[in-house]
Amino acid sequence: MKSTPNIYLIGYRGSGKTSVGKKLARFLNRPFLDMDAEAVQAAGASIQDMVAHHGWDAFRRLESDIVKQMALRSGHIVATGGGVILDADNIRRMKSSGRVIWLRIKPETARNRISQDPATPGQRPGLTTAGCMVEIASVMQHRAPLYEQAADMMVDADDADIETICRYILSIIVEAETA
After folding, report:
1. Does residue 179 sit within a domain?
2. Nearest Cα to 11, choosing from 128, 126, 150?
3. Mean pLDDT score, 124-145
4. Has residue 117 got a pLDDT over 60?
5. What pLDDT shows up at residue 179?
6. Which of the pair, 105 or 113, is modelled with greater confidence?
7. Taken in order 157, 158, 162, 168, is the CA torsion positive or negative?
8. N or C: where does the chain have the smaller number of CB atoms within 10 Å of the terminal CB?
9. pTM attached to this predicted model
């Protein structure tokens, strides 16, 4: 019996991975998993606290452990952490166990969404010592080739609403399965 591939949503902070993932899971009647929430639960601390006390490397190791666990499952919709693509093994595992969808946004969209999210201060520590827009633009530029390499498909998620994004993803998945 063939297993149902996972669907991994990748992209920068604020790209809509969690919101799209939850709605996509409802549309498909499949389980949803948010990797950042899994990391917080596993560590018993916020991402902000994990990074402050143990550094980004420790967080990335935990993130990789979660990817390993997810690659053993099937049929899940997974909202990844924005930096999951920094590890080539994570990319390999995601691609071997499912489809990887990049929710691409512009730096201005990321800044606006992050600044409007009340959870940002406690859950999203800075990635550099640069100011907000400088950090966003710099990190997005660095990660764009990695997102592109990892992605089976890309969705521009700047202006579309969550339902439109989900319907587009569903149409592509159905088309791929019937081809």
Report:
1. no
2. 150
3. 75
4. yes
5. 59
6. 105
7. negative
8. N
9. 0.90
Cα separation, 96 vs 65, in Å, equals 16
In the chain, what's the furthest Cα-to-Cα distance?
Answer: 51
Cβ-defined contacts of 139-143 (< 8 Å, 24+):
139/12, 140/12, 140/107, 140/110, 143/12, 143/82, 143/83, 143/85, 143/86
Is 178 within the bounds of a domain? Answer: no
C-alpha distances in Å from residue 11, one per residue of 53, 100, 137, 174: 25, 10, 13, 22
175 part of a folded domain: no
Cα separation, 76 vs 30, in Å, equals: 6
The total of other beta-carbon atoms located within 10 Å of residue 93's CB is 21
Q: Please, which residues have CB within 8 angstroms of residue 52's CB and are 6 or more apart in sequence? A: 125
In a domain, 35, yes or no: yes
Alpha-carbon span 51 to 8, nearest angstrom: 24
Closest CA to 87 of 62, 105, 110, 51: 62
- Which phi and psi (to 5°) does residue 142 adopt? -65, -40
Assign residue 128 the CATH number of its domain.
3.40.50.300
Q: Which residues make beta-bridge pairs with 98?
A: 6
